[in-house]
Fold:
Amino acid sequence: MFFRFPKQIIYFLFLLVPFWLIFFNSTSWHGLKMKAMGVMTASVATVRWPLNEAVRLLSYRRIWQENQRLKRESGSLKSRIVQLEEIVRETNRFGRLYQFRDSKSFDAVMAAVIARDPANWNSSIMINRGKRDGLRPGMAVINVDGVVGKVAEVSDRAAKVVLIGDPGFSVAAINRRSRESALVSGTLSGSCRMLYLPENPDLELEDEVITSALSSDFPPGLLIGHVVRITEFASGARRQVDIHPAVDVSTLEEVLVLK
Structure:
């Protein structure tokens, strides 16, 4: 009867032997068992290493793709932030011009700078207003800081403005402190100079020079600039007075054209 069931005996041994091996408490067998477990552990680690590396590679690929996506989104957001900041700055500049125009009750056209003369960057500018907006040559151009220049040429949709530092620009002026009149003209260096002064003018450095009521193009009281240099010639009969313009024409973006 016993030998008629060899398969059952084999199955029984397969179930019994592992339990006996695990729970057998012989000292010699315990050492052998630990070595066998160490070998099995090493084998399992060896098998798992390529699997772990494959998982790491797949994870690295996913993380790298996610990082690239985040970089693209970050670049897009930064670009959007720059655009929004420029819109805010432009809005603030136009707001200042509107407030300045309304506070002075000027009848003026607001214009944006659209081009510059590449041969002489601080000599002239082009603005996006022209005949259709009522502009004509000789009109005064200003901003909140003071005198900018004059309209020189006009087309239907644009106009050329000669800036304050150009030799072709001039305006009747007055020393705000001493009330002495003169003519302010541009120079080849981009600064301004006071001409036709009295014989012994009352001048000091940092004196404010403003437009005079004698000007036919500019309303009185607009700031032209400040006295930065007074040069006396050897004869003492004549002085050269240099004016630093109040408006930084190199940073102009919007202007007012007075009608």
Q: What stands out?
A: Helices lie at 6-23, 27-104. Residues 7 and 13 are 10 Å apart (CA to CA).
